[in-house]
Amino acid sequence: MEKKIKTLDLVYVAIGATLITACSWISIPMTVPFTLQTFAVFAVLLVLGGKRGTIATLVYVLMGTIGLPVFSGFSGGLGKILGNTGGYIVGFILMGLIYAAAIRFFGEKIYVEIAALLIGLVVCYAFGTAWFMYVYMKDTGTVGLMTVLSLCVFPFIIPDLVKMAVAFTISRRVKTVIK
Asked: Which residue, 38, 65, 83, 120, has fewest beta-carbon neighbours within 10 Å?
């Protein structure tokens, strides 16, 4: 039997996409901007659950893809997605899909949620790094893996883990209000 989407689900998805957008505008410019996007993606997945959280993330990416200024620096458009750092943005969707699959198969247990977010983050880093290297080499020339990792991943590991911990802590409180 097919489950219908409820109005409340649409509201939660809209709020989730809005939260990710607002957090993406809080930015410290670097090669890959340091934003609160990942915090928002973690929080949205943890609070809304795998399905609604992933849909909210997808809506966010689609809004930016069609040109709405939802990405860091109030940017948007297909060019941003197809640019050097677009893979990290698309990686948020992969993070959501991994989280949703883990929760569906293993249940909403604390260790499952943490493991799913960690695995999702690693996949996001890997996908974004591969994308960055492909686009950069196509446009500019050869670039080494360690160079890309030192620019696009290593500086963000600890901040992303801190954002994950904060999102996890906040989500526990917010979930009690939503339920």
From this structure: 83
The total number of structural domains in the chain stands at 1
The set of residues, in sequence order, having a beta carbon less than 8 Å from that of 152 and lying 6+ positions away, is: 31, 32, 85, 88, 125, 128, 129, 132
Q: Token digits for 144?
A: 């080494």
Whether 73 is covered by a domain: the verdict is yes
Whether residue 81 is contained in a domain is answered as yes
pTM, entire model: 0.92
The CATH number for 58's domain is 1.10.1760.20
pLDDT tens, per residue, the chain with 179 residues: 456 778 889 999 999 999 999 999 998 776 666 889 999 999 999 999 999 999 999 999 999 999 999 998 899 999 999 999 999 999 999 999 999 999 999 999 999 999 999 999 999 999 999 999 999 988 888 888 999 999 899 999 999 999 999 999 999 999 888 86
Q: Domain residues for 120? A: 7-178
Q: Is residue 37 part of a domain?
A: yes
Specify the amino acid at residue 79.
G
Q: Which of 171, 157, 23 is nearest to 99 (CA)?
A: 171
Is 163 part of any domain?
yes
What is the SS3 assignment for 144? coil
